[in-house]
Amino acid sequence: MRVISGTAKGKRLKAPPGMTTRPVTDMVKEALFNVLGFAVGGSRFLDLFAGSGSIGIEALSRGAAMVVFIDRDARATGVIKTNLESCGFDRKLYEIHRNDVFKAVDILQKRGVEFDFIYIDPPFTDEDIFGRIMHRMDETGIIDYQGKIIIRTRRKMILPEDLKNLKKFRANDYGESTLHYYNINEEDVSI
């Protein structure tokens, strides 16, 4: 696993030990950042269920102004810290929080933080968490009005096309994964 573009291009990244995380393949990472494009530069980026932190680190490498990493596993947050230090990123550019994702979202909302991009990569073994996290994202005020939410699921998993405030605008399959892209439904915004 490595950083594929930007200031930290080519840096090798570690993964947390054990079988609890599924590192994102370079193919999926490259496809994701091709869709997000130059908008990543200067953006505020949230990496939920961050694992190794490879997605948020890729965002930093491509010029994100701030990345917040959330994972409840101490081994994962330790690896994220190690990976960020090995890439040489300024500590002012990121935050790492060891916390339950739902609690962390509540804390971020209370702080009034908004993000341009929210990347969500829940464990594939917990089928119920996908619907729960998307409904929580639909209710939260932490996504900027023009922001995008991307959630990685197992291939062909069905997620809602429309929620109260969010609308799916794209889904792409890559190997065993699907990336679902959502933005604010401009017709009925209440967050």
Give an account of the 3D structure:
This protein is an alpha/beta fold and 191 residues long. 30% of the residues lie in helices and 27% in strands. The chain has helices at 26-36, 54-61, 74-87, 101-111, 127-139, and strands at 44-48, 66-71, 94-98, 115-120, 143-154, 166-174, 177-184. A seven-stranded mixed beta sheet has the order 3-2-1-4-5-7-6, with helices on both faces. The chain is globular. The termini are far apart. The model has no long low-confidence stretch (mean pLDDT 92).
Secondary structure topology:
Layout: H1 26-36, E1 44-48, H2 54-61, E2 66-71, H3 74-87, E3 94-98, H4 101-111, E4 115-120, H5 127-139, E5 143-154, E6 166-174, E7 177-184
Parallel strand pairs: 1-2, 1-4, 2-3, 4-5
Antiparallel strand pairs: 5-7, 6-7
Q: Helix-strand pattern, N to C?
A: HEHEHEHEHEEE
Q: Which value, in Å, is the CA radius of gyration?
A: 15 Å
* Biggest beta-sheet profile: 7 strands, mixed
Which stretches are low in confidence, meaning pLDDT under 50 for 5 or more residues running? none
Overall 3D form: globular
Strand order of the largest sheet: 3-2-1-4-5-7-6
Mean pLDDT: 92
What number of domains? Answer: 2
The assigned CATH architecture of the largest domain is 3-Layer(aba) Sandwich
Structural class: alpha/beta
**What is the count of DSSP helices, taking H or I runs of 4+ residues?**
5
> What portion of residues belong to β-strands?
25-35%
- Which assembly state applies to the chains in this document? single chain
CATH superfamily of the largest domain: Vaccinia Virus protein VP39
First-to-last CA distance:
36 Å
CATH class call of the largest domain? Alpha Beta
**CATH fold naming of the largest domain:** Rossmann fold
